[in-house]
Each structure stands twice: as C-alpha cells, then as structure tokens.
Amino acid sequence: MVLEEEILPYLQWLTGGPEGSIGAIPWFFVIVFALLVLGLLLGFAISAARHGPLGGGDRVYRTLTAGFREMTHLSGRRIWALARLAIKEALRRRVVVALIVFLVILLFASWFLKADHKDPTKLYMSFVLTATTYLMLGIALVLSAFSLPTDFKTKTIYTVVTKPVRSGEIVLGRILGFSLLGTVMLLIMALSSYVFVIRSLSHAHEIDAANLRRIEGPGGEVIGYEGRTTRDLYHRHTIDLGSEKSGTAIVENGHYHTIEGEDGPVVSSSQGLLRARQPLYGKLRYLDRKGVDKERGISVGSEWTYRSFIEGNSQAAAIWTFRGLDASQVIETESGEQLPVGLIVRVFKTHKGIIGKAITGGIQVRNPETGLTSELYPFEALDAQVDEQNIPRKLTSTENEPIDLFDDIVTEKGGRMELIVQCLERGQYFGFAQPDCYIRLPDASPAWNLVKVYSSIWVQMVIVVAIGVSASTLLNGPVAMLFTVSFILLGFFKDFFEGVATGTEYGGGPVESLYRLLTQKNIITDLDPGAGATFIQSVDSVLKLFMLAIAQVLPDFSSFSTVGFAAYGFNVPPDRVLQDLTICLAYVAGTAVVGYFLLRTREVAK
User: Fold this and answer.
1) Shortest CA distance to 26 belongs to which of 580, 560, 496, 552?
2) Contact between 10 and 578 (Cβ < 8 Å)
3) Which of 464, 475, 480, 578 could form an SS bridge with 10, CB 3.0 to 4.6 Å?
4) 508-518 per-position pLDDT tens digit
5) CA distances from 377 to 306, 390, 392 (A)
6) Residue ranges, the chain, pLDDT below 70
C-alpha cells in the first residue's frame, strides 16, 4: 500500500512535534486571525465606499459585535427545526434518485469488473468506494449550492426569516440537515456495497478425493495429501492436507479456503477477502552496490520517486530497523514459532530472465548492537503484491550456529531488530518504500475498518456541504456550485497547487508557465535574461503569494481518502480518523461563521 506521508500520533499532530513542526491548533488560529484581518479590511473598504470612512467603520463594528453576540445565543431547537426543513426540501427535490443510480451502477458493475484479477478484492473495493465518494460529493455539491439561492428566488426564505431565527441558525440548520440526509444515504450505499462485494467474490471449490496424491512417511504410513482444487472464478488452489484430509487451500488471488472432512474433503467458502492488517513499521535505509549506507537507493528512471531500487547480485540492500518487538508477537505454526512479516516488492527487470519464474530475493535478520546476523533465507518476489513471510524463531547464524530470534537478534532495550532484503539475480532490481515491509500484528476487525473508511467519505461530504452552503449565502446557484467545484478540484491537487506557489514545481509560476506554453519552451531551461523575464517573474511573485494564501485554506481531499487502506486490506489508524474528524469540525465552524456574515449582507437576513 502506498503511504507517502507518515501518519503522526493525534496529539503530536494537534499540538506540534518535538522537531519544531507547527501543530494543527496553532496553525488553525494563525489562519483564523489572518482571515479575520482580511475580512475586516475588505468589509471596511466596501462599507467605506458606500457610507464614508466613519460610517463604514461604525457599520463594520456593529456587524462584528452583533455577530459574536448572536453566536452565543444560538438555539439548538431552532437549528434542528431548520435542519428538518432542509431535509424535507431535499426529499422534495428527489435526491433519492441518486440511490437508484448507485444501485443501477452496482447491478451492471460485475459486467466490467474482472474477477480473474490477481487481487479481485482490491479491484472491487476500489470501485465501490471510489464510486460512493464521487457520488456523495456530487449530491452534497448540488444540495448545498442550490438550496438557499432557490429559496431567495422563490421568496420562500421570507417564511423563515420572519420567524424568530438568527442568520447563523439558518446556515447551521442547512449544514446539519444536508449532512444528516447525506449520512443516511451513505449508510445505504455502504451496506449495498458490502453485499455486492461479498456476493460477487464469495465462492467455493471442490476436490475430487480420488485424485488426491498421498504423501507417505518413511514407514509407508500416510502423513498427508496434496493436490489441487477445481477451477472456479478463474482460478484454482494448491491444497496441502494432513493425514485426516483437513487443511487449507494455499492463498491465491488474495484469499484462501479451509478444507475439512475425512469421508470427502469439503472446501469452505472463500476466507480472507476482507482484511484489516495492522502493520508495525520500521525505519528504512539502503546500502549501495558497494555496501555503503545511503538514505535512498538508485533511480530506474521512474518519474514517481516514492520507491527507490537496489541492484541485484551485489551488496545493495534495503534495511528496515524495527522497534518495540517482543515474544508476544510470534505466531504458532506447524513449523514452530514464527514472526509474521509483510513484504511488498516492486520488481524492475533489465532482461526477461527465466520465463514463468519469479525473481529471487533473500531475507536476513540482524542484531543492530552486536551485528549477529542470520543466514540468508531465499524467497520468490511477488511483484506489487503483499507477500506474507514468516521468520522462524529458531534460526541459524552466518557462522552456522543455532540462534534464537528474541534471545539473540532482538535487543533487550527497545526491542530493536534489523531486517535486510536483497535481490539475488544479476541485472534485476527490487524497489522499496518505507511502508513496504512491516511486522504483521493481529488483524483488526474488517467490518470496523470499513466503518472508518466510510467515515473519511462522510468527512469529505460534510466539508463540501459546509463550503457549498456558505458560498450560496451570497452567490446564486450556478456560481456557488462553480465556486465549490473549484475548491474541491484545487483540494484534490493541493500539493501541486502549493508546489507552484512555493516554487518547488518545474515551470515557474502561472504567468511563466503560460509563456512557456505559448512559446513551446521546455520547463527546465531558464528564461532568457531581460526585461521580459524580470516582468514575468515579478508578476508571478505576487500571484504566488496569493496562491500560497489560498492553499492554506484548501481542504486536502486527496489526503482524506482511505480507499487504499480498504482495497489493500490494511487497518485505518485511529489517529488518521481523529485527524480527519478534527479537520472536518474546523471547516464546519469556519464556513458557518463566514456564511453567517455573508448572509448578513443580504437585505432579507437583517
């Protein structure tokens, strides 16, 4: 699974880290203060142009004090009444049609989703979660952007403002009502998606007992059976049974089956389709081909620099240092106690190698204090798939001496251990990022994990509702929708937008990029020195400051998505959920205040 940014502990993210990084709370107050100053200056300028400097200042002061006074006298009963009104209004506009559209999508999705995919659960979960996300964002956008403008156009807003309600209650009532309706729709979509995925991928194979090959011991006794299942859902499993014809069908296409029955082996339905792996990550460093420590491996020419690579048949290696290991993390297997490890390898080939044969790699474990190292254990790399390896507790050192993983390799202080991965074939490369190797802790609940994944979709939906309602207090429906869409799109590309503003992206600022596009000049070459280049860069310096300011208030929708966690079968960290909910609360509070003051500018709301 791709995890480009480390998920910080919630309290550290909230208050700031020990390395001087600014926490969410200090940064929130900085942005609020900057927006408050900007709003005051803009409001005074508009009011002064209409009523003169003194009159304008007086109106700004009275509006500001009245606003803060009203916000301390909000009524939950009135907000709930307005929320119910918003829900009834949305139902009259037949918002439930969106549910019918979603169900129709699920009905025909199996025509286009191929179950012969090497990891069909990833394909199906990615599809249903992505479809749910975009459909919910579309519903939230239309509901929030057109609600108030339609009321202004049809004059129905007068039936509301003539009652003893406040402008802030109107804004909060709309946000609450649309959010509640969206929550119910999201729950229906979640249940429908779960049933769709399980029913589409659940299956069972059969075994012809007559074709099982017996495995005999030295004395001729039967110690087990081996064979294969029938082909179902585009695949079959290799089976390994004990003497009582019970065992498991080896993992294939991301799942397995249990097999029981002495009279005739019975294969269970597919197991492990939905998982919630809990990884314990380590710190990654590299060795180059000469065995020298490096922060990164080599580049193979990919523009995406998430992974770097190690060269095969050399001293190059990827080394993860794990902390907090103890004997309670081992699992019992038929081969004895073992430490479960997850490994994701990205293979880069410079030649085809042996057709049909996977590239071979090797794993070693080492004590970071004494340097005691186990012998090399070979494995066959599963390209871009989760390969679940088990490290035996009883090992052999490089000097061919028996050693114990926790007594000799894992340090007593801090529970540290180094895991070394190498590529063993010449001309081939293994690519890794830090999250590509981890210790497998016991799985969390897949159902609860899906709840956390859908909570991230809920957060995005609520933020869109809050922005749309706030924009619709001043703008008409189409303009409010375009404004909200712009916020969403810029939010999905916030990193790039911020990179242009800070100058870390190639091509310069907006004007310089336009100039390069028109003149077909590449993005690497510097502009020819002269008055024209100076003018372009001067204008861009002003625009970049403006872009940087906008970037600070953009919701980073790309970081909200937890689809990858569910698709790859990983547990969503609770810290991530708490961070998303906190950001959602901040946006709702901020946009509600902005919406209140914008609505106060409308004559009907005074």
Assistant:
1) 552
2) yes
3) 578
4) 889 999 988 88
5) 27, 11, 10
6) 17-20, 209-210, 262-264, 603-606
